[in-house]
Amino acid sequence: MDYRFQVNLSGIIDLLSQHTYSSPQVFIRELLQNASDAILARSFLEPGHEGETLIELSQDDDGTAVLVFTDNGIGLNEEEIHLFLATIGQTSKRDESFVHRDDFIGQFGIGLLSCFVVSDDVLVITRSARDNQQTIEWRGRADGTYSLTVLDEERPPGTEVRLRCKSGQEEYFKAERVQALAHHYGSLLRFPIRFSNGDETVLINSARAPWEQEFSNLPWEREAYMEYGTKLFQMDFFDFVPLSSHTGDVRGVAYVLPYSPSLAMKKTHRVYLKHMLLSEQTEGLLPDWAFFVKCVVNANDLRPTASRESFYEDEKLALTRAALGGQLRQYLIDLSVNSPGILRMLIEMHHLSFKALAVVDQEFFRIFMKWLPFETNMGPVTLTEYIEAHKVVRYVGKRDEFKQTAAVAAAQSLCVINGGYAYDRELIEQLPAFFPGRQLVHVDANKLFLGFKNLTLDEQTEVEKFLALATRTLEPFECTPELRTFSPTELPALYTQSNDALFMHSLSAGKEMADGLWSSVLEQMSSGIELKTWARLCLNYGNPVVHRIAKISDADMMRYAIQLLYVQSVLFSHRPLNPKEMVLLNESLLGFIKWGADVFEGWIQ
Amino acid sequence: MDSISEHHERAVELIDQALDLENGDERIAVSEDAVREADLSGNLELRYRAREACVRAQFLGGAPEKSLVNFSWLLATFDKNPGQFSEWAILWKYKWMVGLVSNLPQISKAKIYEMLDDLEARSLKAGYGRNAIFMLRYRLERFWDDKPRAAEYFLKMVETTTDDLSNCPACTRNEFASYSIYSGDDARGVELAQPLLDGENKCATIPHRTYAELLLSMVRLGRQQEALNYHRAGYRLIANNRRFLDHVADHLIFLALTENFARALELFEKHYPWTENNYDSFDLFHFARAAWFLFELTSERGTNSINLKLPRSFSRYSADGRYLAQDLAEMFKQKADDLAAQFDARNETDFFSRTMRETPGLKIWCAPFPLSV
What we know:
The structure holds two protein chains of two kinds.
Chain A: E1 2-4, H1 9-18, H2 26-45, E2 53-59, E3 65-71, H3 78-90, H4 94-99, H5 104-113, E4 119-127, E5 135-141, E6 145-151, E7 158-165, H6 175-186, E8 193-197, E9 200-203, H7 218-233, E10 239-245, E11 250-256, E12 269-273, E13 276-282, E14 293-299, H8 315-338, H9 340-360, H10 362-368, E15 373-376, E16 379-382, H11 383-389, E17 392-396, H12 399-411, E18 416-418, H13 424-434, E19 439-442, H14 445-449, H15 457-462, H16 464-474, E20 479-484, E21 493-496, H17 499-513, H18 516-527, E22 535-540, H19 544-549, H20 555-572, H21 579-604
Parallel strand pairs in A: 2-8, 12-14, 17-18, 17-19, 20-22
Antiparallel strand pairs in A: 1-6, 2-3, 3-7, 4-5, 4-7, 5-6, 8-9, 10-11, 11-14, 12-13, 15-16, 21-22
Helix pairs in contact in A: 2-5, 3-5, 9-10, 16-20, 17-18, 20-21
Chain B: H1 4-19, H2 25-41, H3 44-60, H4 64-80, H5 87-101, H6 109-125, H7 131-143, H8 147-159, H9 169-182, H10 186-197, H11 208-220, H12 224-238, H13 245-257, H14 261-271, H15 281-300, E1 305-307, E2 322-324, H16 325-347, H17 351-358
Antiparallel strand pairs in B: 1-2
Helix pairs in contact in B: 1-2, 1-3, 2-3, 3-4, 4-5, 5-6, 7-8, 9-10, 10-11, 11-12, 11-13, 13-14, 13-15, 15-16, 16-17
């Protein structure tokens, strides 16, 4: 007797191939999943039952390729078949279908649907291992009809699914492809998966994951783990760390990446769920700091999200993550005790991971303080080295500030740490907790001025005219000049701006460039910012050029010189010039050229 | 003097380097360096590309006010060189900017409408529909709580077809959920957001924002236990990016409402520094409001003296790290009140000050749900 689906099956298949299943190839995953569930269910019924699966590739009379998946699992009875069909009917409301994913029958129905993506009709022959059941044949067609027949045939319990290649899907019926996919999804399944192509039968999942093996010595263990990683990820890793967590029932291995990973890249892992491949791109398995490894793990007791790309964030996952993170942390600590040479190499590639952990883990920070590299204006140091050499910890929080202050600080024999790299500032600011009483000084250029020498009274008289002219010249640029003596004497002047001033500056530069609407937007923006301090130009009276300029008698020349010193110092501070300053630069350069030409002419005459 | 080709090379290198970094301060600094080097190279295309990277880094990394300036440069340059740069890319960034300016109370209402009109005219001229514009108009009216107009534009948005200027599917779905909550239907909002939490659609800000936006609804629905998982999942996603400061505030309020005070103070300590040198008044408002709520609840529960590690620049800095919760509550309330007044003056509504008045009322939802991990 023929029945009819209450839903449009081809519509559902379209929907499935677009959403739930990213590629037609997942029918192999789904069939393996069905086999795995069925075998598990039977082993509950008959402890000691040895499950197995066979995938056979053959041809129909008309030459169409045929794939047959056979398992010796629990099988289905007639009632259960009606149940899974009901599940198929519900798949139009896909949210509900996932409610059923935990139960085997619902799962079976959904899994079977994926077969219609590659086959126009699907034949299922099954016999339940429960009681004394009949053999049942179910034939479903993509047009939405199916038939159910009781076969008068004795066969062992289990299920056979037969697919005929749909036109255009030949790719998925090629021997190499089927074998590769079965291996891809099922290599860790614990029952044998065999593949037969006529005369030849091969075992697909012969190799077991290293964490499921016993090793009699360490070198063998290492070799097995490292080889497994190379095969799986096509990469020679630096090292490996076995992982396990009681919560979530997780076992696996983390491989240490042989290069520094990009921080912007997603950190994903290869995850098996109950020995079936869940995803190669699972996120969120490890703590955020652990981006120096790539993992492959099997989890038996974590709940994946529908996208399969991560697990549900719950207490179980949080505990699992903490356990796995703890093992990676312990691995690093063990290296510091047993293999400092290896640790050094590892830190060279992965110090960012170390620092990310140290930020949230004081004890770890304490241990690795003597290893982690930091940049200073006197070369790289570790924090331990720094603390031993300097009573006061001086640092800047941003890369820009470091550029501005590095040379000046060095000339005054002040060693300043650059906190502008990821995690560095946060770590430096934690130092007082480890070294009570140690002073922590956030250096900015303005503070460096405090160490500059004031001019003597005589000198102040000498520069009176110069300083007055500089004040007038720089006023339109909201900059206050001052004269001091400081090292290095090669540096004629130092320009500094507060954050607010810097931002105001960029706003005014933007206003000049923008059109009507945007110019007024920027104008309104700047009206909301209260500018507390002007920029400062600290001229170095110890610099021979400045010293001479201060005594030039020609007022124009003096002004040009002040303008050039200003522009040069602005550039030295790594701030771009605005249009007004470009004009200033041109004006003073031309002034100098004209003056040079006049002098040169004077010589000739 | 460095040669032009050296600047060119360095700019290209820095742009690449910025791509390799996570959104945050370092990425911003590197992309700003790229702009400097590109400017020195004199190559217009490179200067444009570097500023595009910079706008992205600044906008996505929590320095939106800076992105405003760079964007205005991009737009002016785009207009002066017809056909040379991607129209879609500039319009997309324009959308960011329009979304951003409502957070800055110094930008007048008239100016924001003017920007929207400008963006609308440009989009239509470029052949796009109005879907994205309706979305922005709805967000704007909702921002100052003009409910009828927000509803009107939301409906218009739903009725127009989407195009390449429309928000991505994840953001759109999130907006639907968020709109339900805004309209008072917590249960519907949570239901609509579920696929986002399942990872069905995602993007650079979803489900990061989703988790935070659902917390209060979950509390009102009495689903605190599940919400603890939302806190766990959502906070991890936003913990290291300044642009999510307003959502950190959502987590703070949630932690206070579930009486996870130790964890809340930990978050406060970590994120307080984000309020320094921060020009985003909207973020500052939400953080100050959450801090006020947290400290007030802390002191009401009998813990007035607390230990906090705060930077020296904190206006009430105490060297031994001891603070009175009541003092802090007052200080942050003052701060939030000031900002609310600025917003309400600009918006010509009382939404922000009303939000402040209604905040203590959240306490009726307060009940202990301790976080185990």
